[in-house]
Amino acid sequence: MPDTIKEANKTYDAVIDFHYDEAPPSVEDILNYAEDLDHEGGKHLTFDWADTEIRKGRLGFVRAGLVAQKVKYYKLYQKSQQKLKDFRDYCESYLGKALWQINRLIEAARVTLELARAGFSILPQCEAQARPLAKFTGEALQQKWLEVVQTVPSQKITAAIVAEIVDGEQPGKKKQLKLDAEVYKKLVGRATLAGTTPEKLIEQMLNGYVEEEVVPIGTEETTEVEVVEDGTPGEVVVASVRKSRVQEKFAPIGTRELDAWLADMQLLLVEQFGAAVGGAVGTG
Fold first, then answer.
1. Residues 143 and 79 placed together within one structural domain of the fold
2. What is the rounded CA–CA span in Å between residue 284 and residue 184?
3. pTM for this prediction
4. What's the CA gap between 261 and 160, in Å, rounded?
């Protein structure tokens, strides 16, 4: 064997041994770490150390996924003390995770590594952000991620935004509307009385709101008033008022328009129920 290869193998073995010597953090390690930080306070901690410590863990999921792939590919679990029978057994017994969770982690690591090798300096920051990209590889993957980083500032990239950009607008896909708990309670009550669901009631309210408030250019509105005699000479009672419009057809709306409508919907709910919006209870 050539000396260069021997030297390379020695270096490789040294790196592997170094990583093996690093025990994974336990619950006790985390507690001790927190106590040490509290003890240091703001007097001895430096910005450079803190920044390095934070950055060091940002792509930890990639390291874990890459190693998990090696455990799976080389069947390293067979060399464990417990003589595990398969990779699923390893995931459940050693990691406390389901097989599908570790497989997703492996795919996320593959995606992030591929993007890094392609020259991207902005990368997915967690498994969830990389997950929507797992169906792509090569140029298709690079193009999809390029679309993400060109559309959204890096600090605002989330898993939901990546999925929306990568997958595009899906017909029938539901959006989430967050309401104050009291507003939601009233909404459910109104929906129950109306014999419908909160989602359907909001849809009906929104349709009525659009008909009453949004008048396309060129729309004509007429008002018909029906009156009846109430038996008193010269007096009439308004029995009904009916408004009708000859409306133009609207073109299909996109995500931005829908988001604007949802914002208007929140204002409408405030008007309808007289409470503030902004809590954590959603309608769907």
1. yes
2. 11
3. 0.54
4. 19
Rounded CA separation 201/191 (Å) = 6
Whether residue 221 is found in the same domain as residue 122: no
Residues 221-265: pLDDT tens digits?
A: 444 444 444 444 444 444 444 444 444 444 445 566 666 666 677
| In a shared domain, residues 75 and 154 | yes
For the segment 114-139, what is each residue's pLDDT rounded down to a tens digit?
Answer: 999 999 999 999 999 999 999 999 99
Q: How do strand 236-246 and strand 220-229 relate by DSSP bridges?
A: antiparallel
Most confidently predicted of 23-37, 81-95, 173-187: 81-95
* CA atoms of 9 and 15, how far apart (whole Å): 10
Q: How far apart are CA 27 and CA 44, in angstroms?
A: 25
Distance CA 176, CA 262 (A): 9
Q: Specify whether 111 is located in the same domain as 204.
A: no
Q: What is the pLDDT of residue 186?
A: 85
Which residues, in sequence order, are bridge partners of residue 224?
242
Give the type of residue at 201.
Answer: L
Counted domains in the chain: 2
Q: List the domain range (segments joined by +) for residue 219.
A: 178-229+236-282
Q: Please tell me whether residues 161 and 268 are part of one structural domain.
A: no
